[in-house]
Every structure is written in C-alpha cells, then in structure tokens.
Design brief:
Layout (H helix, E strand, L loop, with lengths): L7 H18 L3 H30 L5 H50 L2 H4 L2 H17 L3 H28 L13 H5 L2 H50 L3 H9 L3 H54 L5 H42 L19 E8 L9 E8 L4 E5 L6 H9 L6 E5 L5 E4 L10 H6 L6 H10 L3 H5 L22 H15 L3 E5 L7 H9 L1 H4 L4 E5 L11 E6 L2 E6 L1 H5 L4 H18 L1
Parallel strand pairs: 3-7, 3-8, 5-6, 6-7
Antiparallel strand pairs: 1-2, 1-4, 8-9
Helix pairs in contact: 1-11, 2-3, 2-6, 2-11, 3-5, 5-8, 5-11, 6-11, 8-10, 8-11, 10-11, 14-16
C-alpha cells in the first residue's frame, strides 16, 4: 500500500534509517525508551489481574490470607515499577530536551563539512530551514520519531499482554458455530468473536485515517511555518538583538515597522495555521471518542452476555473486558502511530537529503609545482550553481613565489570569486588551479570574531603561542590597545558569555582578523578588502607595513581602494569575469584603460572632497 508516493517497504526502510541515525547523536536513548514502555505497560495489568483474582476469591473460597497476598503483591509490584518508571521517564524527558541541541549540532557539523558552494546555495539554505523548522516548530522529524517509537513500543507490549490474557481467559471452550437467536447464544458463538474482531479492525482503520488527515493539515502548515520561523528568527535573534541595529530602531522609529512585518509575515499566518491544526485535531478527536463509545458498548454486551451464559467466570469479567479494551486501544494506537511515522518520513527525507549532501574531500590535494608559494590559474571558467552565465571566463594567471599582487575591478568583476576558487571553497567548472599543496591564510571583509579571549581569537584554537600573537598584534598596530586591557591576551571579546568582555570598534575588529591571518603564517596570504572598516590613517598604517606583514609570502590583495596597489609588485585588472589589464601601478595609471579610469574617478573624488 503506497502512501505519499512510497511503498510500505520504502517507509519501513526510512523509519529504520531514522532510528539508526537517532542513535548516532543520542546513543541508547531508544533502548531506554523501550525499557520504560515495557515497565509502564505492565503496571496497569498488575492492578487489573490482581483485582480479577480478588473478585474470584470473594465469589469463591474467601480466604483472607489469599486476599492479603493478592493485595500486598499488587501494591508492592505497582510501587516498585512506578518508581522505576518515574526514574526512566525523567531520563527520557532529559533526553528529549537534549534532542534539540543535539539535532542542531548534527546539522552544524554537516554544514561545516559540506562543500562551501552548497552553503551559499539558496535551495540548500531553504532545505536547512525546513529541517530545523520541522523540529523547532512542531517537534517533527527526529522529534516525532522519538515519541512515535515510544508509542509503538507501548502499543506492541500492551497488545501482546492483552492477547496472552485473552488466550487464557476468553472462554473459548463451549464456543458454538451457530446461535439460536438470543444474545447469550450469539455471544457464545464464533460470530460473537467475529463481530468483536470486526469492531476492532474498523475502529483502528478509521482512527488511522483521521490521524492521516490531521497530519496532512499539520504538514501543510509546517511547509509555510519553516519560512515563518526563519523570518521571525532573523528579527528576534539577529536584528533586534544586535546593538548596531538598536541605533536604527531608535533613530528611524522602526519599532512599528518591524512589529507590523513580524505580525503580517510571521505570527498572523502562523496563528492561522495553528487554528487549522487545532480545528482538524478537534474534529478528529471527536470522531475517535465516538468510536470509543461504540466499541466499548459492543464489548460490554459481548462480555456481559458470555458471563451470564457461564462461559466466563465472574472474576474474569473485568479481566477479559479490560484486555479487550486494552487490545483495541493498542491496535488503534499502533495504527495511528504507524500512520504518523509514515507521514513523518516526509520530514526525515528532508533531513537525510541535507545530511547526505556532498562534503569536502579532505584527501584531495592540489598538484605540486615548483615554488612553494607559486599560484597558477590556467584557463579557468566558473559558473555559480543555478546561474546561467559564467562569473569567470577563461582566466589565466601566474603569481610567482613571494610576489605581491593586487586584483582590482568593479563590483561583480569576479575578484572575490577568483579568490574563493584559489582557496578551494569552490571547484572550478573548467581549467585548473595549482598552488603547490600549501596552506593558505585568508582575511575576508565579512569575517567573524568569537566570544573568546583575544589570544584564542587570533590563534583560532584552544591554545595560542603568545609570542606569535604579540608579533601579529604589533604588525597590525593593535599591540598597545591589547596591552591596555587588564587581562591582556586573556581579555574576552563581547559580553555575550563574560561580563568582563569588551567590544571593539569595526576597525579594531578588522585588525584582529588580519592578525589572525598573520598568526597562521602560511606561504600564501590573501586579503579580500581587509581595510574596508579602517579609517584612512589606520589604513595607511597597514599599507606601509604590508611588506613587513607579508614578508617572504606570496600575497594577493583584493581592494576597491586603488591606493593600496602602490605597495604591490603587480596589478591585475578584472572586468566582467576576465583579466583586461596587467602591470605595475605606475604603468597602468599612465595609459588609457580600465585601471586609469578607476584611478582618475577615485582621485577626482578625493579632490572634490578636499575642496569642499
């Protein structure tokens, strides 16, 4: 039987795969869930069975010692198992709370391992939002699998116990093939059992169908809810919590605008979806209650008639009735939960699609060439995934070991794309890039600092070489600033996790990022707009120290500010994904072309500014 386009076998394989995956980030939790289900399902049957024994004793020999024994055993076992159940349930609830961060850590680990090109792909980002949103918004995916497994365990264990009780106490002896027309005769015939089985199957079937309809509504709400979750998360967790945004909120009176945006695009649509879910759930629960009442009535009639007919002893009436109703509930719960598990596979498929994305090949190495810092770009073309046009077209470039090269051009000319390819963040579409199998130090404009001590921020590790850190700080002009802190290199950044943390200006933060690249001490040093946040004096200071900063290193400098090109051995000019000019600053500025146009435009701007 197919569901959501999948066969039963395909769904079973997905559920099994989900359980195995679940065990990778919460080991032994499902085993704990099974043991807890076993204990919790035994507890009610102890009371039912002992009550049946007490009734039988009271209607028979009435032995006081036997009654005391039954009551003592019932109370003792119930108390012992209840305590064990409480302990296990506490661990299960703790495990469920751990599921959410463990799930997010698993996704983050995958994001760190996957190809960088996939991280910038909008479809992959949307998939990540759906995977995170499914468990955050509705507890679906791994969350639903966890609880559904518990419900399945409960249903199977309860059903098995019920069947055993019925097999031993249902009063099969004396069952007739036909009946005379009376209720007693009918209840004692095979037709009574047939009706009972039919009631159980119909009830379970309708219950599963109702659950499927409820899930269809929930899943439809989820598909949009992931988008709402991402949008509201941006404002709540990123924009409004950022102190830089707080200035705009106040100066431009953005409060009403943001409130309207969040209400219109998040909370109002989400509340409408939530209402749809609750309406569907209420209707479904109403049908299930009606089925329960009908089923209970049929069971009462059949069991009562068999008791009056003498097929079942008076002490076993409660036992048989309870076993029948528990079996019906177990079958219904199993059917409903299994339906939910099959529907939940829609979420698991998205999860597995994400965690199965291609990862970086750590074993892959670039071709060795003469010169440890030499870079050779040979006829490289590149197109971003989903794009129709190439960003780079047949680019060829050779940078000698120790050479300092500036790559300039207008926005969209392909400068940063070329850097990403050299760093190995993307695979070239055509051509090849070789850099002698060496590590690379890169400083991008959009860097990130951590809420950690300055020394660890620069070393990018748990340990740091203090001498190397101080050397890097001195080269970028931050040594005196860090020495002014009481805790020096142990001074934490930001106040997120340390009340004694400090905030840096944009220029200071960028200097720390440059110091990080210096600390790595790689033969190839790439700086992509490294001085964008610096004031002119600090920028000049960095430029004049560039020979010291990148001594004996191959250096690639990406910048919009052409003044930096004066400190480079060679300038590469890019336009529309191609290299259009190449030479020294003095050579290029003196001839007509793209470089002199950009230089004159910037020079005129500086002249106009100074004149004003």
């Amino acid at each position: 039987m197919r569901k959501n386009g999948r066969t039963l076998i395909e769904d079973l394989k997905l559920i099994r795969r989900g359980m195995i995956e679940f065990g990778t980030f919460l080991p032994r939790q499902l085993r704990l869930l099974f043991i807890a289900s076993l204990i919790s399902m035994i507890i009610p049957y102890i009371g039912i069975y002992m009550t049946s024994m007490v009734i039988s004793e009271l209607s028979g020999l009435r032995r006081v010692s036997a009654l005391i024994t039954y009551i003592a055993v019932s109370i003792s076992l119930t108390l012992l198992l209840s305590v064990l159940s409480a302990i296990l349930n506490k661990k299960i609830n703790v495990g469920y709370n751990q599921l959410f961060p463990a799930h997010e850590i698993r996704l983050n680990e995958k994001a760190n391992a996957m190809k960088y090109s996939l991280l910038e792909n909008e479809k992959i980002r949307a998939l990540r939002d759906e995977v995170s949103g499914s468990i955050d918004c509705s507890g679906a995916g791994m969350g639903s699998l966890y609880w559904d497994c518990g419900s399945i365990f409960n249903a199977i264990i309860s059903g098995v116990i019920s069947i055993i009780i019925l097999a031993l106490n249902v009063g099969i002896e004396g069952t007739t093939l036909g009946f005379s027309g009376s209720m007693f005769s009918f209840a004692n015939s095979v037709w009574g059992y047939f009706v009972l089985a039919l009631v159980i199957l119909i009830s379970a079937f309708i219950s599963s169908k109702m659950t499927a309809k409820i899930f269809d509504v929930s899943f439809d709400v989820f598909l949009n809810g992931a988008k709402y979750n991402r949008y509201s998360g941006y404002y709540k967790l990123e924009y409004l919590s950022d102190d830089k945004s707080a200035k705009d909120v106040r100066l431009y009176h953005q409060k009403s605008l943001i409130l309207k945006e969040v209400l219109d695009k998040c909370y109002i649509p989400f509340s409408k979806g939530d209402k749809r879910e609750k309406d569907a759930s209420s209707m479904g629960n109403g049908v299930l209650l009606f089925l329960s009442a009908i089923t209970g009535g049929v069971v009462y009639i059949l069991v009562g008639a068999k008791a009056m007919n003498g097929s079942i002893g008076i002490g076993n009436v409660l036992l048989v009735y309870a076993a029948v109703t528990m079996l019906i509930k177990a079958l219904t719960d199993f059917s409903m939960t299994f339906t939910d598990l099959r529907n939940n596979n829609e979420h698991l498929i998205r999860y597995f699609n994400y965690v199965s994305l291609d990862e970086e090949n750590a074993s892959a190495s670039k071709t060795d060439i003469t010169g440890k810092g030499e870079v050779v770009v040979d006829n490289v073309s590149f197109k971003y995934p989903g794009s129709r046009n190439n960003t780079l077209n047949n680019v060829s470039l050779k940078i000698s070991d120790g050479e300092k090269v500036a790559i300039v051009g207008a926005n969209g000319s392909g400068k940063t794309t070329l850097v990403k390819l050299i760093c190995g963040l993307y695979d070239v579409s055509n051509g090849s890039i070789t850099i002698g199998n060496i590590p690379v130090s890169v400083v991008f404009q959009d860097f990130s600092l951590l809420s950690l001590p300055i020394g660890n921020n620069i070393s990018a590790g748990a340990l740091c070489d203090k001498a190397k850190v101080w050397n890097a700080l001195e080269k970028v002009g931050m040594k005196e600033r860090v020495e002014s802190f009481d805790r020096k290199l142990e001074q934490p950044l930001f106040k997120d996790y340390d009340d004694g943390g400090c905030d840096l200006s944009g220029g200071e933060a960028q200097k720390i990022a440059i110091a990080r690249g210096i600390y790595k001490d790689s033969p190839l040093f790439i700086l992509d707009e490294p001085t964008a946040a610096l004031d002119p004096y600090a920028e000049y200071e960095i430029f004049t120290k560039m020979n010291e900063i990148s001594a004996n290193k191959t250096t690639i400098f990406i910048s919009h500010r052409l003044y930096s090109c004066k400190f480079c051995d060679r300038v590469i000019v890019m336009d529309k994904g191609q290299i259009v000019q190449e030479g020294t600053h003095d050579e290029l500025v003196s001839i007509p072309g793209k470089y002199s146009e950009m230089w004159n435009a910037q020079a005129n701007h500086y002249t106009d500014y100074n004149a004003s």
